[in-house]
Amino acid sequence: MRSKLNIYFTFIVMLMLGSGCKSSKTEKKINKTFDTSFYNNQFTGFLVYNPKTKDTIYQHHAGKYFTPASNTKIFTLYTALNLLPHSIPAFKYAVKNDTLTIVATGNPAFLHTYFKDSTALNMAKHYKHINIVDQNLTDDKFGPGWAWEDYDTYFSAERSAFPTYGNVVTISNLDSLIATPRVFKNDIVITSNNKRRAFNDNTFFYKQNTIDSVEIPMVINRMTSEKIWADLLPNKVSFTNNIPSALKTVYSIPSDSLYKRMMHESDNFLAEQMLIMASSTLSDTLSSGKVRTFILKNQLKTLSEKPRWVDGSGLSRYNLFTPKSFVHVLSNLYEAFPKNRLFNLFPAGGASGTLKKWYAGDNEPYIYAKSGTVGNNYALSGYLITNKGETLIFSFMNNHYTKPTSEVKQNMQSIFEWLRDTY
């Protein structure tokens, strides 16, 4: 009996010593990298965690706050996965006699050029009168801290309660100019102007000799909505602020298709609308601020460092998150959802989305993560698969560097490959 106990004790000690040696080796290797001159004039945070053993493998400024850029979308994904069902809530509705009242839920897929969700339009065709409630959003059209000069860029589409066509006008030049939605064709001006739209007006500029399609954000207001719906359902649509009681919900496209597009393309519009749509599960009044507060007070109440979380996309430099916070959320996701489903939602290194040109594996991807880039800041948080089949969860954040972002990525990739090959 004693010999068996001795063998068992020896085995446990060997495991502990092996783990300790491995952690010590990792710490020395990464510390040596961070001690080089490359990292002298920037702020860097890094945390690596093993969810199987519950061990912190390495940490460097893991509790410090950083500008996360699009890493913020990890929190948005977490919110959506916790609050939204398997199919997105396209809209809420009530019927009285021959009148259908549609209440907006923030659904970004309606008539979107990629998703082509026409659920609301198909249902509305069967009624004589349509009332639309689309003023139930408390958020401003732009998030706090967004760059005002980006108003005409595709990645800065306005937020709204009832988006149509992704809240952008898509202009193509084939044999002639084609506008989607078509009601804005006469609002396009051929010009040499570098701006793509008038500052606060739906006059769109298309450069001479352009052959590529361009997406230009619309100015979203009641006039815009009336113009689009008058074309979709002539003489049938009115707008109201009165929300009926006893609403029912109609669902449309699979939620994962929306999540994957948001994460792989780092789509800011989808991220913003996803938080708004999540808020529709809490109330008929839409508010991304309320849903962020709800998640932090409930599902994420055990976060050790509460983030300053001001939008869904990460466009705002007001956002502040720690590597610990990202690893916490990524760990929760890893425990709650099947690995195949979860990893499918994240870009794969060397294979898909924003990581297609970086962090490639030898035969298959070993990094599944979300990147975040805004001037002089780059972050990457997600999952790393080692050669031994271990899944590690990490968050690597770089702020205020003046070197090319490609050099920052190269240094990160060296560390990731070392972890993959040696852990």
From TrEMBL:
Its EC number is 3.4.16.4. Belongs to the peptidase S13 family. This is D-alanyl-D-alanine carboxypeptidase. It comes from the Bacteria. Keywords: Carboxypeptidase, Hydrolase, Protease. Gene3D superfamilies: DD-peptidase/beta-lactamase superfamily. PANTHER family: D-ALANYL-D-ALANINE CARBOXYPEPTIDASE, PENICILLIN-SENSITIVE CARBOXYPEPTIDASE A. One of its GO terms (molecular function) is serine-type D-Ala-D-Ala carboxypeptidase activity. Coiled coil: none annotated.
